[in-house]
Amino acid sequence: MGLPRFAPPKGLDGESSPNLYVANCGPAVGLSFGTISTVFSTFGEVSGVYAADDSGTRVIVSYNKESSAQAALKALHGRPCLDLGSRFLHIRYSIIQPSKQVHRNDSIPASLVASELNIPGLYLWHDFITATEEEELLAAVDDRPWKSLAKRRVQHYGYEFLYEINEYPSGVGLSPHIDTHSAFEGLIFSLSLAGPCIMEFRKHSEGVWLPNHDSGTGSNMEFPNSYSNFVRRAIYLPPRSMLLLSREARYAWHHYIPHHKVDLVKDNMVRRGSRRVSFTFRKVRKGPCKCEFPPCCDSQG
Questions:
Q1: Is residue 145 packed enough to be buried (19+ CB in 10 Å), middle (13-18) or exposed (0-12)?
Q2: What is the pTM of this model?
């Protein structure tokens, strides 16, 4: 299934269509596609909600019937919508135009909340910081020098990899790995800024580990490409969200960011922004790891 592409929005007095271009609305302002779909379904059956561009603040709402789009535009354009955080919506008609398909590859649908993944020790907080705080953090790191790697840029603070900042261009991800047990303690926090992505988790039935010295993220346990017997889960990380890996999620599941420009979130294809910046916080371990997952542990393996 491809991601629908839309022609530029049409004016209020122009040709109508069942598709609406809605500005000031989307994941970057704290509104999930599911929430948007629920609100707009008041006016008729919604066939889909899609990202209009890479901003995260503009979406396309597609109805099955043109009359539904007309009713929604008349009711919501230029007015505060209480069910969408009292945001003023700016709405125009739009039409689908033919384009080449964007393939899902081997993507699995990403959940919006951590509890749906059933991975013990995995937590996600939406809007952990405000939009103003996000802007201040991005401005602060951009005032400091970046270290360029093959496909991304990084900054390190304190002890190497204790406090790490990564910048990922659109389409760039991270290979499957577990942060090495003997190197870091049991809590790993990751704050996402600027753009969204999905993070996938894999758990191999045999729990084997291999040291990976080329990942650029410190001492990690690499997920061997030859292994196919594993469980997969995925979660959507919106801007300003905080992810916590602890217990089983930290010690027994490999995590990674697929190298995609478009991610499958629930039943929608979401295009990534031009940039995502992540802050990773870890505490250096001062002794051998004594976790409850010996098959995955380099201290006990």
A1: exposed
A2: 0.62
